[in-house]
């Protein structure tokens, strides 16, 4: 499973999502969309963070913990 967090500098919600993923024991890549704007073309998020699982944008903002856990177990 490939998990990516689309983030922006100083994003406090991104930190919350990162902690949620760490608590679930999920490895992820952090992608700063200000440094890689091509990610915004592929995943047009208007709110950070964006959570991409296996090349599909699954959540924007902070997801519900139970929904996140369920999505990661699929």
Structure write-up:
The longest helix is centred in the N-terminal third of the chain and has 12 residues, at 12-23. It contains 3 helices and 4 strands, in the order E-H-E-H-E-E-H. Helix content is 35%, strand content 24%. The protein has a 4-stranded mixed β-sheet, covered by helices on one side. The model has no long low-confidence stretch (mean pLDDT 94). Strand 1, helix 1 (12-23) and strand 2 form a beta-alpha-beta unit.
List keywords for this structure.
74 residues, alpha+beta, Glutaredoxin, 4-stranded mixed sheet
List the helices and strands and how they pair.
Layout: E1 3-7, H1 12-23, E2 29-32, H2 38-42, E3 50-53, E4 56-60, H3 65-73
Parallel strand pairs: 1-2
Antiparallel strand pairs: 1-3, 3-4
């Amino acid at each position: 499973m490939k998990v990516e967090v689309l983030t922006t500098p100083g994003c406090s919600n991104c930190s919350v999502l990162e902690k949620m993923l760490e608590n679930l024991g999920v490895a992820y890549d952090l992608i700063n969309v200000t440094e890689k704007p091509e990610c915004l073309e592929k995943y047009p998020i208007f709110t950070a963070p964006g959570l991409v699982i296996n090349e599909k944008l699954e959540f924007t903002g902070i997801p519900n913990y139970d929904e996140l856990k369920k999505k990661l177990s699929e």
